[in-house]
Amino acid sequence: GVRVWEIMSRGLGHGRGARRRRVLVLAIRLVNDVLIALSARSIGAIVVTNNARDFAAIREVRPFALTIVPA
């Protein structure tokens, strides 16, 4: 199958330099957070994190149990 990272890197266009790398790193982190959220949802687990912004955004698209803790 096609790797998620390949799709994401293609979607970022042909830009160069630090900005493109930074965008790719942020996109990969978000994909990892989505995988965590969906995995927890599939087994009925609660995601416990201090990353309120990303996980709250994911939760708007696909509900899952979430507990935010202070950093």
Q: Can you walk me through this structure?
A:
The protein starts with a helix and ends with a strand. The protein is built from three helices and two strands; from the N terminus they run ααβαβ. Helix content is 63%, strand content 11%. It has helices at 4-11, 17-43, 52-61, and strands at residues 46-49, 65-68. The chain is elongated. The chain has 71 residues and is mainly alpha-helical. The model has no long low-confidence stretch (mean pLDDT 81). A two-stranded parallel ribbon has the order 1-2.
Unreliable spans:
none
H-E order: HHEHE
What class do helices, strands and sheet pairing give? mainly alpha
Distance between the termini: 37 Å
Question: On the 0-100 scale, what is the average pLDDT?
Answer: 81
The percent range for helix content is 55-70%
Identify the overall geometry. elongated
Number of helices: 3
How many strand elements? 2
Biggest sheet character:
2 strands, parallel
Strand order of the largest sheet: 1-2
**CA radius of gyration:** 14 Å
Q: How much beta, percentage-wise? A: 5-15%
In a few lines, what is going on in this structure?
This protein has 71 residues and is mainly α.
Features:
elongated; 3 helices; 2 strands; 71 residues; mainly alpha; single chain
Reconstruct the topology from this structure.
Elements: H1 4-11, H2 17-43, E1 46-49, H3 52-61, E2 65-68
Parallel strand pairs: 1-2
